[in-house]
């Protein structure tokens, strides 16, 4: 009753009240990772961080628990040499946070900094801590060990309904920076730090968020806490990686599509005086939000028609069957041979009826309809 009342009154599902008579004392914090030996730290890091290079030269980095600043400083060189360097040569990166339910706030700048272009520092978040009544600003690092991931390479973040806390903050920051496309499910909407507090001397405990992200990156002061991070492309978590790879395949093809479109306009568009403006528009468009063929077609048509003021200028997606039939002949190839006119009268009549519709309307009005121009061989029949 207390939990339902508190959650509904404050509209905050993160608040829980529990009764635990077997608990003799308030739960203690887990021992700090820095108390572990270097070998123990390495073993834990290797359990929580997995990487590989997928087909198509796509880097894959799965993080299930984000270590803090002290651990990352201690093991930074190992991570750069054995993980990050293997991913630097990839053409795009998938950051999998579907199984990341927590981590340390101090680790956030490390993840963001390696994906933030250039050596300029950027204010990405401000964390308010209620017990100490203090705020801490989070900035990207001015320098990193090794290299940063190129800003020209796409990054996709995978999320699930279990993605929580620090992982949510990372997904939110990268999305607001427009540095990554978030694919998967809406995240948990948890908290950066949840603590279980004993209520007085009783066996009742209150689970409560004690830290809060103030979210300076857009959103009008709104953050992911309580509501979660909404993905750019919503899809069940188990299908998120497959969808991400499909998006990256499309995005790899984007420069070639734009180049061929520019060439076609330059070689064939009859309104020659508008071609320079069209070419400039194609080159200057922001394609960062394009995640499907439909997105690309919509963006191209809106941009090209706005510049050309020509509704006939139209880009569309063709199906596989149509694509294969069109690819057999190019614009400079001779037209395909016209099918032979059948000799049988019934077949001839069927051919003519497929081209023309003829009838006499009331009032002795003749009606002739044709939906395409017929070849001369058909007209001679």
UniProtKB/TrEMBL annotation:
Region span, Disordered: 318-344
Molecular function terms from GO: retinol binding; serine-type peptidase activity
Family annotation (SUPFAM superfamilies): ClpP/crotonase (SSF52096)
Biological processes, Gene Ontology terms: proteolysis
Tail specific protease domain mapped to chain residues: 37-236
GO cellular component, one term: cone matrix sheath
InterPro entries cross-referenced by the UniProt entry: ClpP/crotonase-like_dom_sf, Tail-specific_protease
Protein name listed in UniProt: Interphotoreceptor retinoid-binding protein
Source organism: Vernaya foramena
């Amino acid at each position: 009753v207390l939990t339902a009342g508190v959650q509904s009154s404050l509209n905050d599902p993160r608040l829980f009240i529990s009764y635990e008579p077997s608990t003799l004392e308030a739960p203690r914090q887990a021992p700090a990772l820095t108390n572990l030996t270097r070998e123990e730290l390495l073993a834990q890091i290797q359990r929580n961080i997995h990487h590989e290079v997928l087909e198509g030269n796509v880097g894959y980095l799965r993080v299930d628990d984000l270590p803090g600043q002290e651990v990352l400083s201690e093991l930074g060189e190992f991570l750069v040499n054995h993980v990050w360097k293997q991913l630097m040569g990839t053409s795009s990166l998938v950051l999998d946070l579907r199984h990341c339910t927590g981590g340390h706030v101090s680790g956030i700048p490390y993840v963001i900094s390696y994906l933030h272009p250039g050596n300029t520092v950027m204010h990405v978040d401000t964390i308010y801590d209620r017990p100490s009544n203090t705020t801490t600003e989070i900035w990207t690092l001015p320098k990193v060990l090794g290299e940063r991931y190129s800003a020209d390479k796409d990054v996709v973040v995978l999320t699930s309904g279990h993605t929580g806390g620090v992982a949510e903050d990372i997904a939110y920051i990268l999305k607001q920076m427009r540095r990554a496309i978030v694919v998967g499910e809406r995240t948990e909407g948890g908290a950066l730090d949840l603590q279980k507090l004993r209520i007085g001397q009783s066996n009742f405990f209150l689970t409560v968020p004690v830290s809060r992200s103030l979210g300076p990156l857009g959103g009008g002061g709104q953050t992911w806490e309580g509501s979660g991070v909404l993905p750019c492309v919503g899809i069940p978590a188990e299908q998120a990686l497959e969808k991400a790879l499909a998006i990256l395949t499309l995005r790899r093809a984007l420069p070639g599509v734009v180049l061929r479109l520019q060439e076609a306009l330059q070689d064939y568009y009859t309104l020659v005086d508008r071609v320079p403006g069209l070419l400039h528009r194609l080159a200057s468009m922001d394609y960062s939000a394009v995640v499907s063929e439909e997105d690309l077609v919509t963006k191209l048509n809106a941009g090209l028609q706005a510049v050309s003021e020509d509704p006939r200028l139209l880009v569309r997606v063709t199906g596989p069957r149509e694509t294969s039939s069109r690819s057999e002949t190019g614009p400079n190839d001779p037209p395909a041979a016209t099918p032979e006119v059948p000799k049988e009268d019934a077949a001839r009549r069927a051919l003519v009826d497929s081209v023309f519709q003829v009838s006499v309307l009331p009032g002795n009005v003749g009606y002739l309809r044709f939906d395409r121009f017929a070849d001369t061989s058909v007209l001679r029949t």
